[in-house]
Write a structure and sequence with these properties.
By secondary structure, the chain is mainly α. The protein contains three helices and no strands. The chain is elongated and about 60 Å long. This is DUF3073 domain-containing protein.
Length: 55
């Protein structure tokens, strides 16, 4: 017992996430997605796990 209040709160939060209006900064999202997040050649040179033959 005692789960009713927690379940009601979870349901409330889920409804707010699903149906709530959220302001999305599309320009900021576009900038974040356009940047490359992959490793650079300098990162691989410092990585001891990468063998010289693999570079």
């Amino acid at each position: 017992m005692g789960r009713g209040r927690a379940k009601a709160k979870q349901t409330k939060v889920a409804r707010e996430l699903k149906y709530g209006t959220h302001s999305i900064d599309l320009d900021r999202l576009r900038r974040e997605l356009s940047t490359t997040g992959g490793p650079t050649a300098a990162d691989e040179a410092d990585d001891p796990a990468v063998e010289p033959a693999d570079r």
